[in-house]
Amino acid sequence: MSDIESLKGELKKLSAKAMQAKMDLHDLSEELPAGVETVMAVAQRVRDAYAALDARRAELKALEAAA
């Protein structure tokens, strides 16, 4: 499997992870004030997931440009 194909597979997984984290934060916001102590941890998980996704997208773009 090429690096580009491998990266595309990883992007799908990261995208699903980021979307799930976003939905977790959304669900948590609907339950406030219950669970308010977990908001920062869930928000950090969302931020980390999207940062990883953005980094991999940039890596894929660079690989595709070099090909």
From TrEMBL:
Ranges in coiled-coil conformation: 4-63
Pfam families in UniProt: Rop-like
Keywords assigned by UniProt, alphabetized: Coiled coil, Nitrogen fixation
UniProt cross-references to InterPro entries, sorted A to Z: Helix_hairpin_bin_sf, Put_N_fixation
Source organism superkingdom: Bacteria
Family label: Belongs to the UPF0437 family.
Name the record gives this protein: CCE_0567 family metalloprotein
Lineage: Bacteria, Pseudomonadati, Pseudomonadota, Alphaproteobacteria, Sphingomonadales
